[in-house]
């Protein structure tokens, strides 16, 4: 990849990342209208969360330390959470737009206290989904499919194991990979 292509790719990627984070950030900031004293803490916490993955990856280039690993872990969870927050704030904006055209939502939904409660509820829901996803990813599942293939062959059966979506890296480390390999080996596959 040429240097110019590299710069263009990362400029576009960081721009999209920044815009998505800004979009989510502004909604969170607005939800603190009833508690303006919390906005400073929110700004600092959001900046830390949004930059943790990038900072962790840069620190890993220098030296892998517990700090760089923790930042990558935290940032990786933020990347997952960011998708769900984006869906929530987009849905909120669509609902507000539709309500501007055809007013059907109660005025109480637009009170600062209600916005704060909905913001906290969004955080709880997204945290639950992301933690549930992490638990789901930590427990590999074996699904058995029996397929009959009408082909002429001397084989009576063929045991095929497929492993996918492993995401080997900082979070999926060597120890977890070894557990996955042990599980695959226990299945006595003809083909992996």
Q: How are the SSEs placed, and which strands pair?
A:
Layout: H1 3-30, H2 39-62, H3 66-101, H4 112-138, H5 174-185
Strand-residue fraction? under 5%
Indicate the mean pLDDT: 89
Give the % helix.
Answer: 55-70%
Number of helices: 5
Q: What is the makeup of the main sheet?
A: none
Radius of gyration: 23 Å
What features would you highlight for this structure?
single chain; 192 residues; mainly alpha
Structure report:
The chain is mainly alpha-helical and 192 residues long. It is built from 5 helices and no strands. The chain has helices at 3-30, 39-62, 66-101, 112-138, 174-185. Helix 1 packs across helix 3 (66-101). The chain is extended. The two termini are 32 Å apart. The mean pLDDT is 89.
Quick structural gist:
The protein is mainly α and 192 residues long.
């Amino acid at each position: 990849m040429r240097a110019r292509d590299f710069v263009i790719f990362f400029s576009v990627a960081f721009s999209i990342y920044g815009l998505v984070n800004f979009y989510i950030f502004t909604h969170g900031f607005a939800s603190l209208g009833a508690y303006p004293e919390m906005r400073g803490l929110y700004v600092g916490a959001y900046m830390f969360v949004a930059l943790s993955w990038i900072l962790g990856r840069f620190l890993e280039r220098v030296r892998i330390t517990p700090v760089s690993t923790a930042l990558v872990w935290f940032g990786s969870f933020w990347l997952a959470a960011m998708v769900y927050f984006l869906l929530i704030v987009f849905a909120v904006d669509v609902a507000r737009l539709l309500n501007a055209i055809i007013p059907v939502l109660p005025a109480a939904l637009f009170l600062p206290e209600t916005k704060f409660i909905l913001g906290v509820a969004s955080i709880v829901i997204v945290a639950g989904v992301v933690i549930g996803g992490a638990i789901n990813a930590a427990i590999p599942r074996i699904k058995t499919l029996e397929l009959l293939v009408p082909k002429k062959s001397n084989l009576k059966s063929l045991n095929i194991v497929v492993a996918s979506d492993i995401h080997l890296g900082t979070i999926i480390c060597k120890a977890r990979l070894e557990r996955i390999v042990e599980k695959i080996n226990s299945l006595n596959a003809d083909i992996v």
